[in-house]
Amino acid sequence: MKTVCAALNLTTLASVYADVLAEARQAQWSYEELLTRALAVEVAGRQQRAQERRWRAARLPFAARLEAFDFRFQPSVSERIVRELASLSFIQTATNVVFMGPPGVGKTHLACGLESAALDAGHSVQFVTLRELVAQLDAPTARGGMTVVRRYRQPTLLVIDEIGYTRLRPEHAHALFDLVTARYERHPTILTSNLTFAEWGGLLDDDVLATAMLDRLLHHAEVIPINGRSYRMRQRTLGDTTTGA
Ligand code: ADP
Ligand code: MG
To answer: How far is the CA of 164 from the centre of ligand 2 (A)?
Structure first.
């Protein structure tokens, strides 16, 4: 049995067939039922491995779920809009999502939460910070950004995190513009940024390019400004309050 399973690459079945057989004897399954269940075990194992591969390939920085987001702590974020986004209809309409706000308010958490929901639903998903994107553009294999743009225009959902912390040279700005253009009206992109849109000209060091890029990005977009306190600092704030009282 082990040899046959190995020849057919039935890795899950190979590891559990003794249990399956024991259960079949116990429950007196028919031959047909045994065959069906044995193959179903293999199919389930494959689906799980494929799902695990997709999660790894997505490269989320942390496993943040939307269910774990405390909307009471961050009242500037509309729970209704986030729930609506979590239904993933924005993927069908290729609507971009922009989370804007200072550090610690939950931008990356919400972006990861939406990506997790998309992964659960079977979509291809990718997460990258702008700094990583720039590092990949600077790699000798990037071929003028073509490889990078081709890679990131594929996934059904892409997050570009932390726009604003990395200074862009003209070749980076143009590659980012090409990427936005390639995804425009095809696949949605989620962006997080500590900058206002007015500051994007400075980020790209090119006002004309920034205007053209924002024009495409915001044509179909949900912009979510977050202007609350940093969740990372909440203990400190509580501490301060206690000390002050
Ligand atoms: P940002 O990307 O805006 O700097 P993060 O999303 O990285 O902030 O949030 C910082 C940390 O605080 C993360 O661990 C995140 O899970 C957590 N966090 C932020 N806001 C909330 C919230 N409203 N409810 C629960 N956890 C939160
Ligand atoms: Mg962040």
So the answer is: 11
Protein residues near ligand 2, an ion, with CB under 5 A:
108
Confidence of residue 242 (pLDDT cuts 50, 70, 90): very low
The reported pLDDT for the residue numbered 91 is 98
Which ligand has an atom closest to residue 66 CA?
1
Taking the C-alpha atoms of residue 160 and residue 153, their distance in angstroms, rounded to an integer, is: 12
Q: Which helix (H) or strand (E) holds 13?
A: helix 11-27
Please, which pLDDT band fits residue 167 given cuts at 50, 70 and 90? confident
Cα angle, residue 227 at apex, residues 231 and 125 outer, rounded to 5°: 70
Taking Cα atoms as reference points, which of 93, 98, 131, 133 lies closest to residue 114? Answer: 98
Q: How far is CA 41 from CA 13, 17, 164, in A?
A: 6, 9, 48
pTM of the predicted model as reported, rounded to 2 decimal places: 0.88
Q: Which CATH architecture has domain 59-238?
A: 3-Layer(aba) Sandwich (3.40)
Token pair, residue 113, equals 């939460």
All structural domains of the chain with their residue ranges: 2-56, 59-238
Using the atom order of ligand 1, give the atom closest to the CA of residue 109. 6
